[in-house]
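Posting this for the archive.
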Amino acid sequence: MRRRILLAILLAVAVTAAALGIPLGVTAWKLVESISTEDLAERASQIAANLDTSLADGQLSDSDLAGVAILIPNGGRLRVDLPGQRPITEGANPGPDVVVAAADLAEGGRLELSISAGPLRSRQTTVTLAVLLLVLLSVSIGTVVATVTARRLAKPLRHVAERAAKLGGGDFRPDPSRYGVGELDMVAEALDTSGRALAQLVQRERQLVGDVSHQLRSRLTALQLRLESLTILDDCDVSEEARAAQEQADRLSEALEELLAAARAAAEVDAEAVDLPYALPEVAREWRELLRAEGRNLRVKIGDGLMARATPGRLREVVGVLLDNALRHGAGTVTLAARRGDAEGTVVVEVSDTGSGIPDELVPHVFERGFSGGGSTGVGLALARALAEADGGRLELSSRRPAVFSLFLRAPGPGDVPPEVRWPAERVPR
């Protein structure tokens, strides 16, 4: 993009320089020639006036030509032709390439004043070169301006492209950066609005899927229990029909599990092996200055070579929400840590602070959408849990005092295929 902007501006500068420089050079060339010929013609007219006075008194003499010699340019020659007389000359021969000015004399005479064209051509060349140098200087200044302008435009365009890529990757956090360019600022505002809308959409979708799957499973379980009680009746027809219905209910339950598994697999399609010692410090760098402005510190503790299977954008979003939650509602030093999980094939990312923790009455509701204990929108933690589950992970409040949020992720398997992992059964804070 920067190269295209630079080339477009340089092309405009070059076309403008050519459109102005060529006519200006030609005009300068002709202007110098015009000035020289007009000066020579003026001298010829003055000589003619002086010689006409002498002709009125009689014939021309050498003293008359000597009197007008001061008007002859250096290196020039004056030639006077009178009827019935030999030509009279004064001055040196200017050579074959000359500039000539003529004037008429009384009694049918004529004079020619000629000078060498060499000095004229030199002045024309000098002036034309000066014009070309001026054009080159303008092009150079235009190049500098084009480079600065291209850099100024390309940088926010790249940032907007990166923001759009993060949005497509599941990073829905708003970006406060603005660029001072009205159109680009409008794009940034639109991306932030889209991010908020997508965040709410994803959270609602995950909540809907969870609610529907829970309700269907509950109803299917109740139906299977009722059908099982019917299979033991003495009536053969009833028991046979009950067994057939129970078989269909079992198939429906299997189909539901397959659909949910397919939905989870589709959501995890962009997941990849993420290098946590590289990815998490990148996220922490964004929040360290914000915490430092509040007089707080951010510590990062990550085991060497620790890998997790996740979508990079979703991982940044989830960790960003947890750090933002610690900034808004926590106190003291914030710690971002990553370690191997207790269950085989799992990795745990934890965010904690040294504040007073979460009140007991708020603990059951921290992941509920729209619920907030500090006046915020109440979407962040609910969205973070939905994004974690979209990658096949889980987000839990593992400790209420001090507040510790744990993100459980799969470790990458062979060929980056997610292994079957049994999550810890405990789903309540310690």
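The mean pLDDT is 79. Residues 272-416 form a domain with the Heat Shock Protein 90 fold (CATH 3.30.565.10).
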